[in-house]
């Protein structure tokens, strides 16, 4: 069970949902730019975003229209193949990753899809056009190499090798089972990623329920681990989210010495790992 693996590496899970809320001025990378250019892990990215959509009156949310500051920091840490996640056996070439609320940039999927078996980017339908354009524009080199490959072995590259998959998934109305349309039922779901998704108290229950449902897709003996990286904004929202998570999950805050640069103490960001609670009989063994 994933929860026992986390206990072995990180000790007992957290029991306190409170977090220190710093006063740092954090938020968007640059909400006025139509294209954000970044260099991460030796790769260059040009990511389209939509300042107009961000500032629109769309009732069901606009925060996914631009890139947030925490995402490049988390991406750089994950792309370094951190020892913690390797030890937990959730980040390796056979891994399947599902990201919830990825936004238009899809940066984490672009960074990690070449390092894992399958990376699925999900968000509401309104971000899909921008997201797919960003994937296409930032994976052309991969596609060109694959199409021109003259290798004759049985593992010959295909045009979508190393390219993240996309799926429209709304936490409030869509079912996690939709993931089975692009992830083979026999494949595990090893890691679920939430990057700066916790900002609206009305969305906490459907978000947590979606996490539960995704982690349960492969049966009661789930090995799925959830990674939550977030900006510490409003104490009441953060605490409500963690309290709601703790109803279903064992939750650990990633220790300072295990976290990537820019995500540690005083940064205004925090990273948690979570796994579905084990049945009480398993805890007693």
What Rg do the Cα atoms give? Answer: 18 Å
Tally of contiguous helical segments: 10
Mean pLDDT: 85
Order of helices and strands: HEEHHHEHEHHEEHEHEEH
State the share of residues found in helices, binned by percent.
25-40%
Query: Which structural class should the secondary elements be placed in?
Result: alpha/beta
Percent of sequence in beta strands: 15-25%
- Ranges with pLDDT <50 over ≥5 residues? 141-159, 281-285
CATH architecture: 3-Layer(aba) Sandwich
- Name the CATH homologous superfamily: Vaccinia Virus protein VP39
How many strand segments? 9
Largest sheet: 7 strands, mixed
Overall number of structural domains: 1
Keywords: Methyltransferase, Ribonucleoprotein, Ribosomal protein, Transferase
InterPro entries: Methyltransf_16, SAM-dependent_MTases_sf
Protein name: Ribosomal protein lysine methyltransferase
Organism: Exophiala sideris
């Amino acid at each position: 069970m994933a929860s026992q693996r986390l206990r072995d590496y990180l000790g007992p899970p957290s029991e306190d949902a409170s977090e220190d809320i710093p006063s740092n001025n954090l938020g968007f990378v640059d909400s006025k730019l139509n294209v954000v250019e970044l260099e991460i892990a030796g790769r260059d990215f040009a990511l389209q975003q939509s300042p107009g959509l961000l500032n629109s009156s769309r009732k069901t949310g606009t925060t996914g229209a631009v890139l947030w500051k925490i995402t490049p920091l988390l991406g750089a840490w994950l792309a370094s193949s951190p020892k913690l996640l390797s030890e937990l056996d959730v980040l390796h070439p056979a891994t399947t990753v599902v990201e919830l609320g990825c936004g238009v940039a899809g940066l984490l999927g672009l960074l990690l899809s070449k390092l894992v078996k399958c990376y699925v980017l999900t968000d509401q339908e309104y971000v899909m056009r921008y997201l797919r354009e960003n994937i296409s524009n930032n994976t052309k080199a991969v596609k060109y190499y694959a199409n021109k490959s003259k290798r004759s072995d049985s593992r010959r590259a295909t045009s979508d090798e190393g390219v993240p998959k996309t799926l429209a998934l709304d936490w409030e109305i869509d079912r996690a089972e939709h993931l089975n349309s692009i992830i083979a039922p026999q494949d595990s779901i090893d890691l679920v990623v939430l990057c700066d998704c916790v900002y609206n108290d009305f969305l906490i229950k459907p978000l947590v329920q979606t996490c539960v449902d995704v982690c349960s897709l492969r049966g009661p003996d789930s090995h799925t681990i959830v990674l939550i990286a977030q900006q510490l904004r409003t104490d009441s929202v953060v605490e409500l989210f963690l309290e709601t998570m703790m109803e279903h999950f064992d939750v650990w805050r990633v220790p300072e010495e295990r976290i990537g640069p820019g995500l540690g103490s005083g940064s205004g960001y925090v990273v948690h790992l979570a796994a579905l609670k084990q049945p009480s009989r398993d805890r007693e063994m």
